[in-house]
């Protein structure tokens, strides 16, 4: 597995390439009547944000905990925010409802604690999808061990999530990132399903994109300090080939695209979803867009321009999007942009 992580052999052969036109064999994604996305973990928690017709906030009263310094010995704890991402996705078709977990946050306890404070039983989840192998999206798996229903729970991921990676920033100590363990996940009872190609889940109503075509001229991926181990040496890993997104088609509205970090590029991901499904309309984009920091700030203007042309009804940039991109997106798409926050539910229904 390590040989494929960043070497010029299989990684180069499997690299997504620009493809023009519609997919030769489009994915038959079944429209759904409703999708609800609950952000279990995000970088921000704001208890003062309000609800609207499609957004429900956790509020300040979520999670009653023991606190002896208060009269009655209790207080409300709210939601945990951390540099990570996790979302619970529930799709409804007719009278059937099914729930998936998309990423699990950074720490072992944030996701399970937030789910408990929201009254969500993670034992009811039918499957797990990992957007990629970075530890701030997989750390919460440790907190799921022992929960009801975890054993034999299917987990869909890209085979390169096991890649060893590090940050080698000049002038700073090299930081090797925690690497996900296949052996540990097997031991905990998860049914690991490795897929490079697109996957259809829940009777064809949820699409996992697999590797994403890189078609824009401005989304170049990670800078040189982001490196992967080939089995022999550390090499620049710009593409994070295991990056994939979750896509749902809401009947009469269009595509809802959920990203973890969006390492493939937000516009690349949306265009890839459009090409795979044949559905042109983007209804919503939710999740990390990885536009934070000096290396990615030049990508903000063309990303905002392209997303404005797509005219989505809802944009909830989270996690690694960065404050400059948040401000730019809010200014360009004032009716669509919504501030993300741990514990927020977004409900999108058919026309």
From TrEMBL:
Gene3D superfamilies the record matches: Ribonuclease Z/Hydroxyacylglutathione hydrolase-like
GO molecular function: 7,8-dihydropterin-6-yl-methyl-4-(beta-D-ribofuranosyl)aminobenzene 5'-phosphate synthase
UniProt keywords, alphabetically: Transferase
CDD domains tied to this protein: DHPS-like_MBL-fold
Coiled coil: none
Domain Metallo-beta-lactamase: 95-191
EC number from the UniProt entry: 2.5.1.105
Enzyme class of the recorded protein, top EC level: transferase
Listed PANTHER family: METALLO-BETA-LACTAMASE SUPERFAMILY PROTEIN (PTHR13754), METALLO-BETA-LACTAMASE SUPERFAMILY PROTEIN (AFU_ORTHOLOGUE AFUA_3G07630) (PTHR13754:SF13)
UniProt protein name: 7, 8-dihydropterin-6-yl-methyl-4-(Beta-D-ribofuranosyl)aminobenzene 5'-phosphate synthase
Lineage: Bacteria, Bacillati, Actinomycetota, Actinomycetes, Streptosporangiales
């Amino acid at each position: 597995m390590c040989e494929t992580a960043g070497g010029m052999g299989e990684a180069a052969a499997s690299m997504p390439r620009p493809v023009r036109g519609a997919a030769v064999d489009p994915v038959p994604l079944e429209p759904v009547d409703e999708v609800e996305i609950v952000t279990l973990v995000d970088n921000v928690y704001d208890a003062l944000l309000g609800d609207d017709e499609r957004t429900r906030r956790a509020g300040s009263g979520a999670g009653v905990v023991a606190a002896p310094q208060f009269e009655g010995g209790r207080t409300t704890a709210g939601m945990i925010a951390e540099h990570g991402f996790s979302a619970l996705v529930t799709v409804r078709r007719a009278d059937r409802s099914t729930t998936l977990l998309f990423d699990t946050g950074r720490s072992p306890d944030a996701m399970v604690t937030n789910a408990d404070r929201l009254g969500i039983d993670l034992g009811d989840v039918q499957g797990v999808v990992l957007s990629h192998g970075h530890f701030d999206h997989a750390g919460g798996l440790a907190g799921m061990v022992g929960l009801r229903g975890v054993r034999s729970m299917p987990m869909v991921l890209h085979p390169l999530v096991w890649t060893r990676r590090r940050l080698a920033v000049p002038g700073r100590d090299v930081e090797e990132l925690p690497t996900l363990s296949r052996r540990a996940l097997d031991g905990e009872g998860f049914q690991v399903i490795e897929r490079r190609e697109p996957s259809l889940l829940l009777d064809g109503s949820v699409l996992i994109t697999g590797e994403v075509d890189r078609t824009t001229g401005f989304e170049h991926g990670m800078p040189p300090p982001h490196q992967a181990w080939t089995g022999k040496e550390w090499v620049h890993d710009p593409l994070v080939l295991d990056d994939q997104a979750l896509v749902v088609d809401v009947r009469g509205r269009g595509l809802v695209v959920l990203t973890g970090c969006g390492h493939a590029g937000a516009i690349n991901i949306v265009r890839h979803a459009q090409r795979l499904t044949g559905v042109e309309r983007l209804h919503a984009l939710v999740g990390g867009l990885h536009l934070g920091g000096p290396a990615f700030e030049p990508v903000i203007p063309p990303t905002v321009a392209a997303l404005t042309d797509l005219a989505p009804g809802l944009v909830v940039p989270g996690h690694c999007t960065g404050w400059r991109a948040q401000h730019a997106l809010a200014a360009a798409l004032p009716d669509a942009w919504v501030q993300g926050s741990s514990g927020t539910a977004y409900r999108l229904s058919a026309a």
